[in-house]
Amino acid sequence: MSNRATQTAPQHPSAQSLGAPLACVQGTISKVFLSPEFHNNANHQHFVVRIDKVLKFEGGTQNLIGTEVFVAVRFGDSEGLAQQIPGLQAGQPIEVQGEYISDASAYPTEDNSNPVLPVLHFTHHPVGYVKYQGQSYS
Description:
The protein has strands at residues 22-32, 37-39, 42-58, 68-75, 93-101, 119-121, 129-132, 135-137. With 138 residues, it is an all-beta fold.
């Protein structure tokens, strides 16, 4: 059986995929970074989500409930979303799917430091998506 959490998605031979566990979570936005960060040759919209429910965690074993996770959403190029997700606000519910990178494996960025949180990345097609205020972004 194929598991996207342990291998690069075959339809997307991108170096952006780390082959990390695939997590799909529902939670509450606890922080939104207003300015995009440019790294790995792309803009990324960043926010932090406190995980309330795990819908899927393929290839991972940690208990993610109650964990805060740093979410990186690539946008503005052919690899990610066309544009930023509008209207993100702390305190709002959200659903996110992407590759889960533990805090031990995540590297610090301008927005994710002190302490470095686990990261959900590759939150766009073909691996992930974001559902926010009734809209789906992939």
